Amino acid sequence: MEPKLEPIVETFKSREKHMCVKGEGLSIPVCDKASLPGTVTQRTCVYGGARIVLMPITDSIHLVHGPIGCAACTWDIRGSKSSREDLYKKGCSTDLGEKDIIFGGEKKLFETVIELRKLYNPGAIFVYATCVAGVIGDDIKAVCKKTEEVTGCRVIPVQSEGFQDHNKTKGHWIGCDALLDYVIGTREPEKTTPFDINVVGEFNVAGDFWGFKPLLEEVGVNIISTITGDSHVDEIAQAHRARLNIVQCQKSSNYLAKKMEKRYGIPSIKVNFFGLEQTVNSLREIADFFGDPEMIERTEKIIESGLAEVEHKTDEYRERLQGKTVALYVGGNKAWSLVRAFEELGMGVMMSGTKNGIREDYERIKEAVRDGTIIVDDANSTELARLLKKYRPNLLISGAKEKYIALKLGVPFCDFNHDRISAFAGFNGFVSFAKEVDASVSSPIFDLTSTSLRGD
To answer: What pLDDT was estimated at residue 3?
Structure first.
């Protein structure tokens, strides 16, 4: 008989197995289940999952077919930066109301697409189905096909009704399917090289892509497309001619890489440009894949130069951060990809969790963290507050929804989600990362706050 383990924090009986400690039992929490009703989950819906995959395409209009709230809630949801147009930041909705729900919204959708085409002449118009559009039965595929014939513009249906699943991961897949079905393979590149790649699952949040794009160009690869940060739809249309897909966000885009390998024979490798060690390993893996001696030699020089440039820039931060602990409660990919970066700063990851994790995600987290690390699935606000009060990390890494829980408890907070404004990828990005983490952890303000909520 297995010994009964004490709950990590007090919670509902059905929620206890959604938290575990690495090294005890299977070290994988129960996951990918519908949230317990009434517990105020922090999850996003399927529609939100599709929107964050596609929204960074900068020359496109993203039209939400539903009530205005669905568009308002997800406007600029990715925090992606653009070196070209800002068309993708236009908030567009059909604003379905009571009459549309009774009589149908297809005519309104048709007229909206025609008007947007006249106003902006976009590279494409992505039309997102919401719960309301699905419930009333609007045929957005038919409307998109008709308006594409009328306008000559790509009009792409995204069947992302929020009620399809409890997990926004399905929304990621739906967004990827829209690219596979309507975009990728529809345009040929003017020229190809033996070193053509796609950067998959990079959304240029706060300009992250610009932190490692110059490194890739110095290595000697030719980037056909970025899927989807700082991209144009016609660039993604040529992605089927790449020789390699490098996958940065494995949570949202492994699915797309696997589908492209099956359909077009494009192999993929997983990369991570957060942290010095991971950046070095990623550059070497890319060079090793192509096996070109000159590229491999050039890559080693780039690594040597990049490390030398930042060698002592993080020393003062490391000194103050040494021995501090951090809790991660983030999107699936960051829950494991940031672990080594924090260890490079001398910090220990005492907890890692995600809102929408599937078993594959927690396997990756388990591999990345040390024994004794708490692993959490879909923690609600009360559970997160109890975790922070009981285990007292020196820093919480999460998103805007968790920010004020941490701050009210006197726990320093750093946003590594879509609302951040500092790029953390690549060699110089690691310096910015160290600076921002130190600014949060070492702030004297937390010595002045009330201890009543902390339980001190």
So the answer is: 46
